[in-house]
Structure formats: structure tokens, C-alpha cells
Amino acid sequence: MLETPENLSGIALVGSGSAVPSQTLSNEELGLRVETNDSWIRERTGIETRRIISKNETLTGLCSKAGSKALEMAGWDPSSIDLIILATSTPDDLFGTGPEIQASLGANNAVSFDLTAACSGFLFALITAAQFLKNGEMKRAIVIGGDQLSSCIDWDDRRSCILFGDGAGAVAIEKTTAEKNGLLAFKMKSDGQRRSCLNLRQFSEHLPLLKEKTYQKGSYQPIQMNGQEVYKFAVKEVPLILASLLKTAQIEADSLNWLLLHQANQRILDSVADRFSIPHEKVLSNLSKYGNTSAATIPLMLDEAVRDSRIQPGDLIATSGFGAGLSWGAALLRWQGPS
Ligand code: UT7
């Protein structure tokens, strides 16, 4: 079929990349700081170690590296990129870290901005970027998920500090024909009523400005998490949204090649897989090595499985992101890879 603009309504996933800090922090090492131990963390979460950004690294650096690898796999000239979205809750610059990544990639013709939706961020950014490609003039986008939650953790709170790590992942997507579409369906949800389960809130102090006038001076408090509530939310809502996604796409769970969930806790991954009778070999997991890297988990896992050839061109992947907000979402993807 002739590829006229009218039938270029699909999105192809053609490249991926990722980057993690060089510094590791094992469960045993964490036990030197808080009252915890390797077997508790492994049994309750599946995590063995995580990566933490150290002196000579930055989140911007990791995200740029991940984006650059995705660009390289796609075989694109940086000047051909129209859009770069960075999903993060921990930007190096709150005014926007995306433009700095754009500059380092040499993507001179792109527009770049940040999007914040915690652990759902990458999925929401991917869906957002896809809308620009489907409806507008844009043809190529890089979507990056990266977080440095190590900078926002209370390292003396053993209920939360064991979970998180730092990292970045990216995908390259481009406009394609409807027949080659790789974003087959998606769903997004949020529920601010349940926001207090997981927060990274600004604490405001009221300081005098002029006589009878004050201003609020803010600084961020460490992550506050009710782990049990977040756990219950995930094992209830993720199967529901995945079931709704599969119904919309008219796909049976046994047709899926891979289940790619936000890497929060191995027990959550197993529980969701069991609800759909998906064998555990089809459940992608690397959280033992990296912990929960927030917006990075999905592209970091995708890139690993693409590069070690587990994910093959044409594979059907059900993915779901979930976390603070509360927010959650799901998408049915078909990996194309570079042409
Ligand atoms: O992107 C989303 C981010 N958040 C999540 O994914 C969080 C989801 N929730 C979870 O993954 C789990 O709730 C946790 C891993 C955080 C906790 O596991 P749990 O099975 O829900 O443990 P719990 O909070 O019910 O604690 C059980 C016990 C408690 O002792 P008592 O009160 O029963 O005596 C805790 O004090 O384990 C204790 N405990 C620990 N012990 C050793 C809590 N944290 C630790 C620890 N090491 N790090």
C-alpha cells in the first residue's frame, strides 16, 4: 500500500537503549545501615542489589546515554527527531531536564519536555508521544524513563529504602502504517483519592516577605510510602486494567509473548501473571539486579530483553505501569526493531 499521510496512523517501536549507574548497593550492604537482611528483602521483594548514582554520574547523563543507544539502534540521524519526552519525578532541573538531553543528543530539530507520573511515567510518556505521531506532523520520537529516587529516599526507613534504585531506559518510536502499528491498545487511570499511599511532597515553610505578607519556601520531604496499601492496589488494579486492555484489543492472554510489568516487587509480578495463567517464563523481570527504578523500569527491562534476543521482531508484549498518584496504565505493544 502507498504510505500516504492518511494511512500513516501506526506507531512502530524501532529502537531501545538503557543505562544504569556503576555503583552497586547489595542487600547485605543495606543491612549495615538499617535493620534488615538479605533473606527478608529477597523473600518479600525479589531484589538482591540496586544501582545508585554516585559522584561522577548524573541522571541527565544516564538518560542521554539511554536515548543515544535507542537512537543508534534505530539508525536515525539525531536531526530527524521531532520529539523527546523525559518521564521522571527526579529531574536534575525542575524547569525541565528534557532540553538538556536534547542538546546532548544533538537533536536540534526536536522539542523536548519532562512529564511526571511517578512509576507510570514511562508508559504515560510513550502513549503521549504516540498521540503526537498519530495526529500531528511529527514522525520520530524518543521516549525516556529515568529516575534517581536514591536522592529522595529516607535511607533510615527500612520499609522503603530497600526497594528503590536508579536507572534510565529509552525507546525510539516512529510513525508507520496502520498495518505495522506497534501500539495496539492502551488504558490510563489515576485516583487522587488514594494519593496518600505514596508521596514525594513539598513541605512548605511560611516566611516573612514584607509587613503582613508571607511567602512559602518549599523543600521536598523524603518518600513516604504505605507499602501494604500500594501492594494491594497493584495486585487488584493491574489485572483489571490488563483484562480491559486485552478485551479492547480482542487478544487472549495466551497469545502474548511477554508480560512486561513495572518492576516493583517480584510477588506483584507473579500474582498478576497467575491471574492470567501466564507462565512465569513469559514474565520479564530484572528487579533482582536493579530494584524499582520508577519511570525507568519498563524501558530498562525492554532494552535488556531486546539486546539479549529474548524479545524478537513481531513479539506481542502486554505492559503495565503503576505507582504514585495513584496512577496506573497498560499498553499492548508489538516490538518491530530496526529495519
Ligand atoms: O512503584 C511502586 C512503589 N511501591 C511499591 O511497589 C510497594 C509495594 N509494597 C511492597 O512491595 C511491600 O509492601 C513491601 C516490600 C514494601 C513490604 O513487604 P510486606 O510484606 O508488606 O511487609 P510489611 O510492611 O507488612 O512488614 C512485615 C514485617 C513488619 O514487622 P512486624 O511489624 O510484623 O513485626 C515490618 O516491621 O516486616 C518488617 N519489615 C522489615 N524487616 C526487615 C519491614 N521492612 C523490613 C525490612 N527488613 N526492610
Write a structural description.
This protein has 339 residues and is α+β, with helices and mostly antiparallel strands. The protein has a single domain, classed as Peroxisomal Thiolase, Chain A, domain 1, CATH 3.40.47.10. Helix content is 30%, strand content 28%. The chain is built from ten helices and 15 strands. The protein has helices at 27-30, 38-45, 59-74, 98-105, 121-135, 158-161, 227-249, 266-275, 287-290, 297-307; strands at 10-19, 24-26, 49-51, 83-87, 111-115, 140-148, 166-176, 183-190, 198-199, 202-210, 213-220, 224-225, 258-261, 316-323, 327-334. β4, α4 and β5 (111-115) form a beta-alpha-beta unit. The longest helix is centred in the C-terminal third of the chain and has 23 residues, at 227-249. The chain is globular, with a radius of gyration of 20 Å. The two termini are 18 Å apart. The site of oxa(dethia)-CoA has 17 residues, from α2, α6 and α7.
